[in-house]
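Materials and Methods. Structural model of BRO domain-containing protein 1. The 621-residue sequence of BRO domain-containing protein 1 from Pichia inconspicua was retrieved and submitted for structure prediction as follows.
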Amino acid sequence: MNIRWEIDTESGWLYLKPGSTKEIDLKSELYRVLEHKFKQSSKSYNMEIQLIHDLRNDAFGVNIPHLQETVILKRYIYLLQKLMRLLPDDLIQFEWNNDHVSSLQQEFTNSLFQLASFYSILAVQTDVENTTETLDKKGVYFQYTAGILHHLELNYHIMLAQAQEVYYTKSVHNKIRDSVLVQLCQQIVLFYKNSVEEYADYCSLKRIYFTALSYYHYSRACHNNNKLHDQKAYLCEILKLINTVETKDLRYSKLFQDIESLKLQTINALNQIDETLIAGEIKDLPSAQLVKCLLPKDLILSEEDEDPLFSGLLSLDTIQEIEEYQLQLEEFVRNELLLPIQKLDDELARDRSLDEKIASLNSQTVPVVLEKCRDNLLALGSYERLRTLREELKDLKLECRQELDCIWSLKLPETGENETVMKSFHIYEQYLKKSIEGDELIFTQIDELTPFLRIFDNYEQLRAYLPDKEYAKLNPNLADVIKDYETLKKDMDCLDKDKANFVKSVNEKHSKIDLIELVRKDNIDVESVFKKEIVKFEKEMESLEELVKRQCEVSRQCCDLNVRFTSASKDLKVNYKFKETVNVLKSTYDGFEETLKNLNQGLEFYRNLLANITSKKGNLL
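The predicted structure was written out as C-alpha cells:
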C-alpha cells in the first residue's frame, strides 16, 4: 500500500494523508449481487443495504474528519467485515486513488487505512492545553493510528513515538521526576529508529532531539543527586549532539525551535558549573514504554461473532448446492417426462408416413416420364428453338434461290465447258423445287406442336393439364384404407393434443418450483427439499404411462393400415383420360425431337447446296 505521510508545520506532528475515493451506488450494487449472484430477493434487507450505503458515503464524504466521521467509518468497517463473510471478494467495484478496485478485501484495507489517517489527523488537531483530558485524547488517537497500522502490517512506530511524546508532555506537566522522563525520552528515540523513507531526516532530528532531551533530564537528576561530574558530561554531550544538526528544512521549524531552546537551557546550565570540574563518563540510559498499539472498540469482527448480516440469506455455497440439485431436477423432468414424449412424437411422425403415401397417390403429380421430357425441352429451347431454326432454313433457301436466279439472268458464250456447268445448275434447280414439299411438312409440324409444347413451359400448368387419376373411385379396396386412416387420424390428433397439454402442464409445474425459496421457507437441507419435489411428479408419471399405452394401440393400427395400403396399391386402375393425356404429351415431345432432327437436316442440305452453287458459279467463263 502506498502510504503518504504529511507534517503539520505549525505543530510539527506527522500524520497520514487520507486516500481519495469516490461515492458509489453501493445500494444498487448490493441489490444486483443478491438478486443475480445469490438468486434471492433483496427486499427483506432494504434497511441493512441502505445503512451500509449511507455509512460509506457519510464517512468518506468529508474533507476534514471529525470524531463523528470516525464513529461512522468504524461502523461501516465492522459491517463490511460481515459482508466479506457473505460475498465473494470480486463482485463489487470501488474506486480508490483514481484506480478501480474490485475487491472487498482491498476496500476493507483502504477503509482501515482511512480510519487510521482520520485518527492521526484528529490527534494533530486536538488542542494541547496541558490538560490531562486533551493529552490523553491525543495520545489515544495516536495509539489507535498505530494499532490500525500494526493490524495492516505497516510502519506503526512513528505513531507510537508521537503517542509517547504526548505522554512525555503530560509527565512534564504533572512534574514527574527527571529519572522517569529520561526513560520516556529514550523510548521515543527507539521508536524513531523505525523511520519512514520520505521523512528519514525528520526522524533523525527527532532521535537527536530526544536523545539530547533525555541527557538533559539525566543531567538534572545528577544535579539533584550532587553528581556534578556526570551532570557536566551529559550537558557537554547535548551540545555535541545538537551541533551535528545540519538540515534546515522549513517544515521542521517547530522542532528547530525546540532544539534551540534546549541548547540555550544546556548552555545556561553549563555556565553554572565550575569550568575546572572534570566531566564524568557517558553511559547507556534506560527506557520505559508507556504506549502500545490500540484498536478502537467494535472495529475488528471476532471469529465468535455469529450475528449475521442479511439474516436468513442463503450462503453462496448453499446456492451452488441448490443449483446442482436444480440441474438434477431439470434432468429428471427432461429425461423422465419430456424426452419420452419427444420419442412418442417421433414415433407417431413415422406412423403418419401413410399421410405422404396417400397424398402422393391422390396428388396431381406429373409422371416422371413427362418431367424428363420437360427438362429436356427446357434444355433444348422448346418451340423457340424450332422457330429460330425455321427462320434460318428460310433464309438459306432464299439465298440459294437468289443465286440461281442470278445465274439464269447471265448471257454466257456457248462453250462446251459452260454447257456442262449449266447442267449442274439445272439439277440444283430441281433440288429446290423438290424441297418445297418437305419444308412445308416441317413448318406444319412446328405449328401443330407449338401449342402443346407451351404446356411444358410451367410446371404447375403442366400438372393442371393432366386429368385426375381417380384412384379412390376406381379402386374400392384403396378407398376403404383411406377412409379407415382418416378415422384413425382423429385419434392421432387427439393423442397429439393430449401430449402437448401434458408437456405444457409439466413445464408449468417445473417452472413454479423455486428450490431457493423452499429451502429458505422450510429451513431444511437441499436434498430433502429436492426429494420432496420429485415425489410431486408421481401423477405426471402415471399420465405418461397412459399416453404410452394409447400410442402403442395407434401404432399397431397404423401398421395394419400400411400393410393393407401396400396390398391395395398394387395394379391400380387409372382414369383412361389421364393415360391418353400422358401419351399425347409424350408424343408431343417425340414430335419435337423428330422435327428438330428434320430442321437440322434441312439446314445441312441448304448449306451444302449454297456451297455447291457458289463453287460452280466460279467455273463459268
